[in-house]
C-alpha cells in the first residue's frame, strides 16, 4: 500500500495558539493520520449555532476533479465549551500514491468558512512503500535496539 506523507505539520491542534486561531477563523484542521483505509482527521469549529455542516473537499489530480467527504460530530465536545470537533475519513483506495490536496468547509447560520492552510491547501505526497528486500528484516520489531547489561 502507498504511504501518505503530510507536507504540513500533521498535528496543528497541538501548536501554540490553536484555540485562538479557531476563534478567529471559525474552522481549523486539528490533526490528520494516514491509515490503510485512507486519511483520517479531525476538525475543530467555533460553535456558532446548533445546526452546522462540516466537510472536506479533496482532489488527487490537482483539482481537475474533486470529491467532498462529510465530517461527523464527535461527542462529547472539547471541554472549552465554545468549539465542536468533527471527524472525517477520506477513502483514497488504490490511487493513494498521488498527491492529495484538501481544504475544510464549515457551513453554519447561512455563512461559509474555509480552512485551506492559509491559501496553500493541505497537501500530502503519496509514496509507494518499498517492500523489504532479501536479507532485510521482515519483522517490524526486528530493527529495534536491544541493550544487554
UniProtKB/TrEMBL annotation:
Upper classification of the organism: Eukaryota, Metazoa, Chordata, Craniata, Vertebrata
GO-annotated cellular components: protein phosphatase type 1 complex
Protein name: PPR3E phosphatase
PROSITE patterns named among the record's database cross-references: CBM21 (PS51159)
GO biological process, one term: regulation of glycogen biosynthetic process
UniProt-listed Gene3D superfamilies: Carbohydrate binding type-21 domain (2.60.40.2440)
InterPro entries attached to this UniProt entry: CBM21_dom, CBM21_dom_sf, PP1_regulatory_subunit_3
UniProt superkingdom: Eukaryota
Domain CBM21: 19-125
Molecular function terms, GO-annotated: glycogen binding; protein phosphatase 1 binding
Species: Scytalopus superciliaris
Amino acid at each position: 500500500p502507498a504511504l501518505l506523507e503530510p507536507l504540513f505539520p500533521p498535528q496543528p491542534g497541538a501548536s501554540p495558539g490553536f484555540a485562538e486561531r479557531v476563534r478567529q477563523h471559525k474552522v481549523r484542521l486539528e490533526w490528520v493520520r494516514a491509515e490503510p483505509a485512507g486519511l483520517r482527521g479531525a476538525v475543530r469549529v467555533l460553535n456558532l449555532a446548533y445546526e452546522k455542516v462540516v466537510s472536506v473537499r479533496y482532489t488527487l489530480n490537482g483539482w481537475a476533479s474533486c470529491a467532498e467527504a462529510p465530517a461527523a460530530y464527535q461527542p462529547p465536545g472539547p471541554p472549552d465549551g465554545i468549539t465542536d470537533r468533527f471527524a472525517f475519513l477520506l477513502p483514497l483506495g488504490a490511487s493513494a500514491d498521488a498527491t492529495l490536496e484538501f481544504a475544510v468547509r464549515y457551513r453554519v447560520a447561512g455563512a461559509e468558512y474555509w480552512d485551506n492552510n492559509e491559501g496553500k491547501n493541505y497537501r500530502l505526497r503519496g509514496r509507494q512503500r518499498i517492500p523489504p528486500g532479501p536479507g532485510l528484516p521482515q519483522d517490524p520489531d526486528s530493527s529495534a535496539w536491544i541493550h544487554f547489561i
